[in-house]
Design a protein that fits this description.
The protein has 17 helices and eight strands. By secondary structure, the chain is of the alpha/beta class. Strands 1-2-3-4-5-6-7-8 form an eight-stranded parallel beta sheet, with helices on both faces. The relative contact order is 0.14.
């Protein structure tokens, strides 16, 4: 089957995306327009001049450090800027066939170069994304992202408390991201004890992306992770894999991202199939699609083209995502029904 034909089928499948960063999902054209409007000091002559600074290019160093240079915080000067970005991301997800999106973002990032406040940007993201999602039959939820390098317990606690008060707007979790090489999990136990004690927010921890299986273990045991962002290194330790399987801690895996950051040598060597065979709740997600130059459907195509996954395998990953979603049982059951119905309708199209 030709790739174009595969992609058409994959786009039509109902999908969940549990790991998508707002900051890495902004359209290039939008960055260009916001940059010009807000006087951002980057090459803004045209999209071609800006692209190398904000998107991955094959041939450049495949390292996490290089990848992180693509993130810039200068774009936002008003709440309407934030609203525009959030609305467009929800619309893009819906066009990819996403029926449930957990969008994570950093209030600190969105307020770094302006006079905006965390409460305001949280409202702006939620209201704009939810409005567009409702128009597109998309359920959307939100996670706060905290950067390891910018630890500030009191500021983070205020954001956690805001997320609790905004739970009716779809705030469901807290994410820890950033440099896990020099900022180990144990440093953040106190704030994630607070997250756990809210009773309404869950933890998703970036861990084991390029470090070690011990980081995955401590994310579960010290930071109460219900899900792990990436978690590739878990495959190197059978005991950690058993821990994940026993506690039903899901892995939010993003193969294209892992290739571009140099965490895997090639997509065919990605550990997801081995983790899947070990009975771990693995899921496929988009991470930073605008920077990667990909969509969630491209991640699914990796599974088909590089790992030989068929429709039943993709359905299993989707069912994992339904189980792992930070959603109430009514939403979870509705998602389960939509997924199973959509996959049933896709049978006989060539991916069986």
């Amino acid at each position: 089957m030709e790739r174009d034909e595969r992609m058409e089928i994959l786009t039509g499948l109902p999908k969940l995306d549990l790991h998508r960063h707002l900051e890495g999902s902004v359209r290039l054209t939008t960055l260009l327009e916001l940059g010009r409007k807000n006087g951002v000091n980057l090459p803004l002559r045209d999209a071609e001049s800006l692209a190398p600074l904000v998107t991955y290019r094959e041939g450049e160093p495949r390292t996490l450090r290089q990848f992180l240079t693509k993130f810039h915080a200068e774009w936002y000067r008003s709440y309407s800027d934030v609203e525009r970005v959030a609305s467009e991301i929800a619309a893009d997800a819906a066009r990819e066939g996403v029926i449930y999106l957990e969008l994570r973002f950093s209030p600190e990032h969105l307020t770094r170069h302006n006079r905006l406040e965390a409460e305001g940007v949280m409202r702006a993201v939620a209201e704009a994304a939810r409005g567009t999602a409702q128009e597109n039959d998309l359920a959307v939820r939100f996670l706060l992202t905290f950067a390891r390098e910018r630890y500030d317990f009191e500021r983070w606690k205020r954001c956690v408390d805001l997320a609790v008060s905004f739970s009716d707007m779809g705030f469901v979790g807290v994410d820890l991201a950033g440099d896990e090489f020099t900022h180990s999990n144990e440093k953040f136990t106190r704030i994630f004890e607070r997250v756990r004690d809210t009773g309404v927010l869950y933890s998703s921890i970036h861990a084991g992306e390029g470090t070690s299986p011990s980081q995955v273990r401590s994310a579960v045991e010290s930071l109460f992770a219900r899900r792990i962002g990436h978690g590739l290194k878990a495959v190197e330790d059978p005991a950690v894999m058993q821990l994940l399987a026993n506690r039903k801690v899901a892995l939010e895996m993003c193969p294209i991202s892992n290739y571009q950051t140099g965490c895997v040598d090639g997509l065919e060597n990605h550990p997801l199939p081995r983790l899947d065979q070990a009975g771990i709740l693995v899921t496929l997600n988009s991470d930073d699609p605008a920077i990667h130059g990909s969509t969630l459907n491209d991640e699914y195509d990796v599974a088909v083209a590089h790992w030989g996954y068929g429709l039943s395998d993709l359905l299993r990953l989707e069912q994992n995502a339904v189980q792992a979603a930070f959603a109430d049982e009514e939403t979870r059951e509705r998602l389960r029904e939509r997924v199973e119905r959509g996959y049933q309708e896709a049978r006989g199209q060539g991916l069986d």
